[in-house]
Specification:
The complex is a heterodimer of chains A (about 525) and B (about 400). Chain A is of the alpha+beta class. Chain A is about 40% helix and about 15% strand. Chain A has helices at about 35-45, 75-85, 150-160, 175-180, 205-220, 225-235, 250-260, 270-290, 300-315, 320-335, 345-350, 355-365, 370, 380-395, 400-405, 410-425, 440-445, 455-465, 510-520, 525-535; strands at about 25-35, 45, 65-70, 90-100, 105-110, 115-120, 130-135, 135-140, 140-145, 170-175, 430, 475-480, 485-490, 495, 505-510. In chain A, strands 3, 5, 6, 7 and 11 form a 5-stranded antiparallel β-sheet that branches. In chain A, strands 1-4-9-10 form a 4-stranded mixed β-sheet. In chain A, helix 3 links the parallel strand 9 and strand 10. Chain A is globular and about 95 Å long. Chain B is about 30% helix and about 15% strand. Classes of the chains: A alpha+beta (about 525), B alpha/beta (about 400). Chains A and B meet through helix 1, helix 9 and helix 10 of A and helix 1, helix 2, helix 9 and strand 12 of B.
Chain lengths: ~525, ~400
């Protein structure tokens, strides 16, 4: 990954305390191969075979689909062998997972091969050799990756660097031949049928994760983008209400339903229903492409999935004017892909609603990176909200540009959010603990709470304006009491001479101007980090 | 204007076959065979990247590899894609320099034509050499390897080259002195286990691969790629008839092409024409047609072998107007096959029709995202018989 220069960890061993045995063991081992592991790190989730789609190589995950098999000290030799059985270029690796935030019902295998439920962590007796945890888990819980040799480690590091989205260097990488030898700690694999099969694709949750990432990066462009990011990230609220105007922005309510994997409610307006159908249709097209064999006759093309929804929903609409509007929109979308007769500005002038414009952008550009740099004066921030959601549904978390995924704190927040969403959806009885803090766009961090900036906000805004050379938004005020002030002119310029020490020198920021300009530019990562350092606290 | 650049793939974008190829050792002879859209060129560029030494840190050390392409246009395309971080050369020029370095005299050519190598004399010279130096660039990566003749591979093997990574698609042979996959394998003594076939297509170009398959001429040595059943797609290629009795005339088609390019200025369009006369007609019209655009008129350039070359940058979007002969190995986001009625062939001549199929196979497979075929209405169209009639493979529009 492009983060090779951003190695977060040295290669020092995991502290022995992490491996403490006993009832409270919180560190467990997942045997797999380097390609499955890299895929899961890129996806942001440790998940079952279906989550890896056509890229899944046989490993222990296939022995209990939908459950993550985690071993205490010794990993079964059969599981290590299976992980490299499919191809000659596979290497054994063991992912060390930190389950300190996990709570809820998991399973364990008894020495006689039986499956038993237990409450984690309080139900641990200390004798468990294997845990079976419902998938998925946040990939950020991978505390370390163990290799059989230095050669294996360096080959895997070189391999990861070939990909744009494998954050291998965000995890400790250690050579531990002993752990990779394996043994017979427990009967393995489990007898088929003892565990309910719960394996499922993860496109729906990674779509939400990707939308969160895009809304974060686009967030400086407007308040609707900030609101939408907050809505999609906050899983706890039943309805989005914190500062969100659902009357004027009903589509934000739709996003909340989508972000909760809920369908349309009775009485949902047409655009809202269409948007939900389209988002689900895009995800379904991606899921179909992974099915083996892919179901026949149905499209795998996400553009076609959109057109199919417009066509089928259009037929259900009673009013001719709505049907005609959808027909026109569909024709323009097709034209974008081919030899349509319009420029972008002509299309945007014809379609003025965020729903339509979001779809236009979805057809005009393919990659998330292209959306992030797309500028057009006719577009509103709500247009970008819809587009970001659609692009997220198409790309999934893995399809985001590496610089988005690697934004400090975003991967932790989104991995947790995606995993928590999956557990809620499948009602697994597992909780992942408190969510990491949401990463907020600068615009949100600079939003005054009660009409005035706090001191950290004022300082953050100053750093930003200075860093970007925005003198036009800065003004220096020197407050002076009554008195006589002398003027001295020399070769260096003019100086006002004051008696005593003047402390009332302040730099003021044109808040409106600064936020408006912020919406138009990309802030360099280093400067953004400096500004955030005072604002995130 | 935003730049077009080669970017590393996401892990989800490479399939298992491709990962297998990437896992091959640096040493040895590897032959990778695959149809359009199977990612051969991406794999070859990733292979080059694996060998490439960044300049600066160890700049005093020469590159250990060479990335060979068929012609100068492909050379520019590869260099632009890799932001110049690739040791790429056109194969003939590179071979001449390698020969001269090894044999201490110029490479024999036919009648003094620098681009027509005399393989018989070359073979005799190498066989008669008392001592040959070790190759300076021991790792040879060949893109579109089917376009180079068998004696080229034999000569390299005799010159002492041992490590080859050749990507090829036998169904894209349009050069006169091409190699079959079997000939490459024999010349380089490729172990059958080191011959890997890429069969899976990227999803986003499935409709293009499906259309290309219609033009594939079956060869037992290199069977056509098998593809899943036809599925509905918004990007199904379309055949547009224009002119008399049709909704669009020449002006309208040109305007629409210009607007399509304007909608995404980073995209590269390839207008592929059957001959120079047609090329000039399209080039002039696209450059002169009055139209209101958001970004102004796009970059419109042309290329033809033997003519003085101008702007051949592939790192920026725009429109390339080129002849079919120059399309080989290039990649465009959007391909327009202009005036397909102008291709000459006779339906009763199977050999001629097979050649035409191969040509269409190559032209169609230049596209990454979309293909449009244009035909002048009211003219005879000798290639009609090779066009698919299934509307799910090629939609028709008048």
């Amino acid at each position: 990954m492009s983060d090779s220069g951003n190695d977060l960890f040295d290669l020092s061993p995991v502290p022995p305390s992490a491996f403490v045995s006993g009832p409270t063991r919180l560190v467990w081992h997942l045997p797999t191969n380097q390609l499955n592991l890299m895929y899961m790190l890129a996806a942001g989730l440790v998940t079952g075979p279906q989550g890896l789609g056509r890229k899944y190589y046989l490993d222990a995950l296939s022995s209990c689909p939908g459950w993550i098999p985690l071993f205490a000290e010794t990993v079964p030799r059969e599981a290590l062998d299976l992980a490299v059985s499919e191809a000659g270029h596979l290497r054994r690796v063991v992912a060390v997972l930190d389950l300190s935030r996990l709570k809820g019902t998991v399973r364990t295998l008894d020495p006689d091969g039986g499956v038993r439920s237990l409450q984690f962590p309080e139900g641990l007796t200390g004798g468990e050799q294997v845990l079976l945890v419902p998938a998925p888990l946040p990939a950020t819980w991978v505390q370390a990756i163990l290799f059989a040799s230095k050669d294996d480690r360096s080959a895997t590091e070189e391999e990861a660097a070939r990909y744009a989205n494998v954050p291998l260097t965000a995890h400790k990488r250690q050579v531990n031949p002993k752990r990779l030898v394996g043994g017979t700690p427990c009967p393995w694999p489990p007898t088929p049928g003892l565990l309910p099969e719960r394996d499922a694709p993860i496109y729906d949750v990674t779509a939400v994760g990707a939308a969160i990432g895009l809304l974060f990066v686009l967030g400086n462009r407007g308040d609707s983008l900030v609101d939408a990011g907050r809505i999609l990230t906050d899983l706890s609220a039943a309805e989005p209400n914190e500062g969100v105007d659902l009357v004027n922005d009903p589509l934000l309510g739709v996003l909340h339903r989508w972000g909760s994997l809920a369908g349309p409610y009775q009485g949902q307006d047409i655009q809202g229903r269409l948007l939900l159908e389209i988002l689900q249709g895009v995800v379904r097209a991606k899921e179909r492409a992974d099915a083996e064999p892919a179901p026949s006759g149905l499209t795998l093309d996400t553009h076609q999935a959109v057109l199919d929804v417009l066509a089928s929903e259009g037929k259900r609409l009673a009013e001719d004017k709505w049907q005609a509007a959808l027909d026109r929109l569909a024709a323009d979308l097709r034209g974008i892909l081919g030899l349509g007769g319009d420029t972008v500005s002509e299309l945007l002038n014809r379609h003025t609603k965020p729903f339509s414009r979001g779809l236009l952008l979805f057809f005009l550009r393919e990659e998330c990176q292209d959306l992030l740099v797309f500028r057009q004066s006719l577009l509103t921030d709500m247009d970008f909200v819809i587009a970001a959601t659609l692009f997220g549904a198409r790309s999934g978390w893995m399809g985001l540009p590496a610089e988005v995924q690697s934004h400090p704190g975003l991967r932790e927040s989104v991995s947790h959010r995606m995993a928590a969403l999956a557990h809620r959806r499948w009602d697994t009885g597992v909780e992942l603990g408190p969510a990491p803090a949401r990463v907020r766009p600068l615009r949100e961090l600079l939003c005054p709470a009660e009409g005035a900036w706090t001191r950290p906000q004022q300082e953050g805004a100053l750093k930003l304006a200075r860093g970007l050379g925005w003198d036009q938004f800065m003004r220096t005020r020197i407050s002076l009491g009554k008195g006589d002030y002398g003027l001295q002119v020399d070769g260096r310029g003019a100086h006002i001479l004051l008696d005593g020490e003047v402390k009332a020198v302040t730099t003021e920021i044109d808040r409106e101007g600064l936020l408006a300009r912020l919406a138009e530019v990309a802030v360099p990562a280093k400067l953004e980090a400096q500004v955030r350092s005072g604002l995130d606290q | 204007m935003a730049k077009r650049r080669f970017s590393l793939p996401g892990i989800e974008q490479l399939n298992k076959d491709q990962e297998c190829v990437l896992g091959l050792p640096k040493e040895g002879c590897h032959l990778i065979v695959g149809g359009p859209g199977t990612g051969k060129s991406v794999i070859a560029l990733l292979r080059a990247r694996r060998h490439h030494r960044a300049s600066g840190t160890r700049s005093s050390r020469p590159q250990e590899y060479v990335f060979l392409v068929f012609n100068r246009l492909l050379l520019e395309a590869s260099r632009e894609l890799m932001d110049r971080a690739v040791n790429a050369h056109p194969w003939i020029a590179w071979f001449r320099s390698v020969f001269k370095l090894a044999l201490k005299h110029p490479c024999p050519t036919v009648n003094g034509q620098s681009f027509t190598l005399d393989w018989k004399a070359i073979g005799e010279a190498i066989a008669g050499a008392s001592e040959l130096p070790a190759p300076g660039t021991p790792f040879v990566i060949v893109d579109e390897g089917q376009d180079m003749p068998p004696p080229f591979y034999q000569a390299l093997a005799e010159l002492g080259f041992e490590h080859f990574f050749v990507v090829a698609d036998q169904n894209q042979q349009i050069t006169e002195q091409h190699s079959t996959v079997r000939e490459i394998a024999n010349a380089l003594a490729v172990d059958p286990r080191d011959r890997i076939e890429l069969t899976e297509n990227y999803r986003n170009c499935y409709p293009i691969a499906r259309l290309a398959l219609e033009f594939c001429v079956e060869d037992p040595a290199s069977p056509c790629t098998r593809l899943p059943p036809i599925r509905p797609s918004a990007k199904t290629p379309v055949l547009v008839d224009y002119g008399q009795g049709c909704r669009w005339d020449f002006d309208e088609v040109c305007e629409r092409i210009l607007k399509a390019a304007d909608r995404d200025p980073v995209r590269l369009f390839g207008i592929i024409t059957p001959d120079n006369e047609t090329r000039a007609r399209w080039l002039n019209k696209l450059r002169s047609h009055a139209v209101a655009l958001d970004h102004g008129r796009p970059r419109i350039v042309t290329y033809a072998a033997g003519e003085e070359q101008g702007d051949l940058r592939f790192s920026e979007g725009g429109i390339f107007v080129i002849n079919a002969q120059s399309a080989k190995g290039l990649e465009f986001d959007f391909v327009v096959l202009a005036d397909i009625n102008c291709y000459r062939c006779h339906a009763e001549d199977k050999g001629q029709m097979d050649d035409m199929r191969r040509r269409f196979y190559v032209m169609v497979s230049r596209a990454r995202e979309q293909v449009v075929l244009l035909r002048q209405a009211g003219r005879t169209c000798p290639v009609e018989s090779i066009l698919p009639t299934d509307g799910d493979i090629l939609r028709r529009w008048r």
